[in-house]
Amino acid sequence: MNLFQVIEARRSVRKYLPEQVPEEVIRKALSAALLAPNSSNLQPWEIYWVRDTRKKTALITAAFDQSAAATAAELLVFVARTDTWKRNRALILEELERRGNIPQQQLDYYTKFVPLFYSHGWIDLTGWLKRIVFSLVGLFRPVPRGPFTTKEVKGVLSKTVALACQNFMLAITAQGYSSLPMEGFDECRVKKVLNLGSESSVVMMIAVGRENPEGIYGPRLRLDPKFFLFEV
Ligand SMILES: Cc1cc2nc3c(=O)[nH]c(=O)nc-3n(C[C@H](O)[C@H](O)[C@H](O)COP(=O)(O)O)c2cc1C
To answer: What distance lies between CA 6 and its chain's CA centroid?
Structure first.
């Protein structure tokens, strides 16, 4: 399948046949997920491939026993981290140094710009201060309008992690299997199963398996593009 055929073929499948998915299929899709474009290349994702039966059962319960979760051969949880940017930034700088000749602009970006937007201080206090300063400067020239608060940082990170989810699902489709992205779950319980703290937010849970034809609830439904596409 070419890319357009894969995009057409991907559907949300909510029931799966009792068939295993070869490990290689998941590993390939995971590699594709990690190639997603991501904000400042800080790679704030974590992907949990939940293989432990007890954990999987707890996840199904946390996902309100949705049939997709209950019948899926594999369950994966895509997480955004607000705290790993420091480690990842250090690793990126190390790697750039190893490659030699880091452009000053790139160095400044990681040492000045990134901390400015990714650190937000106790109860977002510095974040709110930054918002005030940027709003004032913004009266006179274009300025970044965030992220300033933890919530805004989480929003930025969710964009990135969602792109990894899409890469993952398309890679699953390209290999002849099906998936379902889920946000219908109790995040507190999912985090408990995975032992995650407040620095993590669960972006999506993804079910993977061999499509049961009953798992597609109808023909694809999309509204008229006139509502969404604009040439200005
Ligand atoms: C972020 C996100 C969360 C979703 N959560 C659920 C879910 O919890 N349960 C479910 O049955 N479908 C879920 N879906 C699937 C959508 O309902 C589905 O993508 C949409 O109806 C379009 O159908 P299609 O994917 O077959 O084109 C979710 C999709 C996205 C992108």
So the answer is: 20
